[in-house]
Amino acid sequence: MADGKDIDGSSSTGHKPFVEPLFPPAQISIEDVRAVFIDAFLMTHYLHTNHPSVLPDTLSPRNIRFHRAASQEAVCVIVDLDSHAHPSNPDARPSTHGTLPFNAYDLMPSLETPTKSNSAAPYKRYRHILEALYYIFLWAVSSPVQQWIDRGPDALLRVLKHRIARTTFMWDATAAFAEVQPEFAPLVGAWLRPLWRLVSDAHFACRCLTGEEKMEKLDSMLTLDRVVEILRAGGGFDLRIATLIPVPGEDSDEGL
After folding, report:
1. Res 200: pLDDT
2. Which class for 45: exposed (0-12), middle (13-18), buried (19 or more C-beta within 10 A)?
3. Exposed, middle or buried: residue 205 (CB in 10 Å: 0-12, 13-18, 19+)?
4. Which of 57, 62, 50, 61 lies closest to 243 in space, CA to CA?
5. Record's superkingdom (predicted)?
6. Contact between 226 and 198 (Cβ < 8 Å)
7. Which residues contact 215 (CB under 8 A, 6 or more apart)?
8. What is the pLDDT of residue 19?
9. Is the C or the N end of the chain the one with fewer CB within 10 Å?
10. pTM of the entire structure?
11. Which of 72-81, 108-117, 216-225, 244-253 has the lowest mean pLDDT?
């Protein structure tokens, strides 16, 4: 590749990789996390709307990476590496569809089969992307990867992977938020809890609905506009957008 960079993103001159993973989270600051996930929400919407064939059909932490711009700001990079085993997969099984902990809640019932216990279903709606990004966001600022691999009852991986535990998480995420590393604690009140409430409220508002009525209700409640409202909220941080991707209006077609 040009500029002395190898195909895996590293540099033959000894420089740091130009695309870096989000883990271990100790390598990134709270400002980096803010910038990367603002970009991630906006970029995935842009790709879904304009270049849907480019966007991976599921997302996991392997897909969300970043690089340092000349200004030293962290800029999100979306890659497709889910054909390889990932540390969040305790069984080390390769999956072309991400990993189950980062799947949307309403996709989980179809996944409960012994032969595909760690596979994620391809997205069917745009809101599935938003929800997956939220779980990746929570993962990125929580305890080290080892805690996610742990099979103990309090492990975040277990909470997000199993439907019963995920349902409990939907009712009360206090235990999960306690896993957020101290340096990222301000994000709990600013973004993580409001985003959790958005996801949780949507699914519980639809729990008595079925079929297309349920899908339409969820689509109307889980939108990028509502996510951006949270990112702009006075109790959080100012919205810093490092891209030229526009925020969609109410007439945007977000459905897949």
Report:
1. 96
2. buried
3. middle
4. 50
5. Eukaryota
6. yes
7. 125
8. 63
9. N
10. 0.74
11. 244-253
Among candidate residues 25, 57, 22, 69, the one with its CA nearest the CA of residue 243: 69
Instruction: Name which of 91, 147, 87, 97 is nearest 122 in CA terms.
Output: 97
Within-domain flag for 166: yes
> Which two tokens mark 116?
């595909």
Q: For the chain, how many structural domains are there in total?
A: 1
Would you say residue 107 lies in a domain?
Answer: yes
The CATH number assigned to the domain holding 218 equals 1.10.510
Query: Helices (H), strands (E): how many in the chain?
Result: 10, 3
Classify residue 111: in a domain, yes or no.
yes
Q: What separation, in Å, do the N-terminal and C-terminal C-alpha atoms of the chain show?
A: 35
Confidence of residue 238 (pLDDT cuts 50, 70, 90): low
